Amino acid sequence: MAILETTHLTKQYQMGKVTVNALDGVDFTVEKGEFVAIMGPSGSGKSTLMYMLGGLDKPSDGEVTLAGKKLSVLSDHNTTIVRRRNVGFVFQFYNLLPTLSAEENIALPLLIDGKHPKEYRAKLDQLLDLVSLTDRRHHKPDQLSGGQQQRVAIARALITDPAIVLADEPTGNLDSKSGEEILKLLRRSCDEYQQTIVMVTHDAKAASFADRIVFLKDGKIVGQIKLDKSRNTQEILKRLAQLES
Questions:
Q1: 155-190: pLDDT as tens digits
Q2: How many CA atoms does the CB half-sphere of 64 hold within 13 Å?
Q3: What is the pTM of this model?
């Protein structure tokens, strides 16, 4: 079952008299419970694709179908509702509110959607346990390490039981040990809770945690590989080198 699908997705920017094809006819499908990594050189269109997938920007042409809903036919308001209820976002720089505790930051999407966090106490407790922050639930971001803050961000992305989590360089601001903990957490949410994840990354080690890697170049999908349990980082690096040559 496809949770996310794009058809001939195109995004053009005008830079003076030059038209830049940030995305050029991308056809892309993500199945329920799948963990997909998107890789490619700088300027290949990775972040642009992420914005399109999450309904944060509109394509010049083509279609994004998210959880069965075609975004092109929705008003801005309805697109916001679909995004709020179906997409969890994890960014490189955490984007936590500094005045809120860990559990308040996690519960924030519920408040924005007009729901009372008390009704989700069991879910909140489950997520705090999942990200190993039960004993830090009342700490504010400046009392947490970078890795702990990113774990809060992941729990926040999961609190609404989204159809898909979009992660943009989630380990890019972390040391290698903290980064690996975050990747294991994303992998666990996929394996144990059938969470669907799409992650943009430039790091082959990070991409090795995925089930499938999609390679972008010049706004086009130019290849993909499915990973077995060995998750061979050298094979990923080899494919990246071929892409960039």
A1: 999 998 899 999 999 988 888 888 999 999 999 999
A2: 22
A3: 0.90
